[in-house]
């Protein structure tokens, strides 16, 4: 019996050691639960050179919970992709702004994207706040598109100039909102991310302002360094013009 206990202890120690080695150097512990999912595969993806590459894959079989460890250079946008074994749709891909530490994703199989509740990341909380406002701008833009289509279908263009004017003002308002949001939250990595992904073509002085407001930690982050390089390249191009 004693030999069996010792053997069992050695096995447990071995397993624990293996787990520590597997997770050594990884700074993000991601857990989650996809209610209703009993079988499938999850992929955690990262953008590299304008393409999505897989950082990790998780097989779900007989349960809806998942648990994994990742290593990220700094807070950045990752994507949780659900392979349902069916035709892919937008509801299969869930963006989340990852941060080192403990993060959790709770959602459902039925509404994978819409039901998602993500905790453990201040950057993601800000991303949700930003996305809510962005959707309102998108709704207003859709209303203008509908009016343009109505004019086109009825061959009446008397309101075309006013619609174009309203659309132009809406775009400007949206850009200024994003620039202000990024400047206000320049102490978080979401600031350079939004500058690059949403308003890269805005007047360079707004990007300069965002860049100057970033603290040292954000400036050294993945997106912080990318924004600095982008601003430098923009200035070179505009000087040539």
Number of strands: 8
The coarse overall form would be: globular
Number of continuous helical runs:
7
Can you summarize the main beta sheet?
4 strands, mixed
- Write out the strand line-up for the largest beta sheet, numbering strands in chain order: 4-1-7-8
What distance separates the N and C termini?
83 Å
Task: Return Rg in Å.
Answer: 23 Å
Helix content: 40-55%
Mean pLDDT: 86
Instruction: Provide the succession of SSEs.
Output: HEEEEEEEEHHHHHH
Number of domains: 2
Structural class: alpha+beta
Can you summarize this structure?
This protein has 241 residues and is α+β, with helices and mostly antiparallel strands. The chain has helices spanning 2-23, 122-154, 160-184, 190-197, 204-213, 216-219, 222-240; strands spanning 28-35, 39-48, 51-61, 65-70, 76-83, 93-98, 101-108, 117-119.
List keywords for this structure.
241 residues, four-stranded mixed sheet, Immunoglobulin-like, 8 strands, 25% strand, single chain, 7 helices, 2 domains, four-stranded antiparallel sheet
Walk me through this protein's architecture:
- With 241 residues, this protein is α+β, with helices and mostly antiparallel strands.
- It has two domains: 116 residues, Carboxypeptidase-like, regulatory domain (Immunoglobulin-like, Sandwich), CATH 2.60.40.1120; 117 residues, no CATH class.
- Helix content is 50%, strand content 25%.
- The strands form two sheets. Strands 4-1-7-8 form a four-stranded mixed sheet, with helices on one face.
- Helix 2 packs antiparallel against helix 3, helix 3 runs antiparallel to helix 4 and helix 5 packs antiparallel against helix 7.
- The protein is globular and about 60 Å long.
- The N terminus is likely disordered.
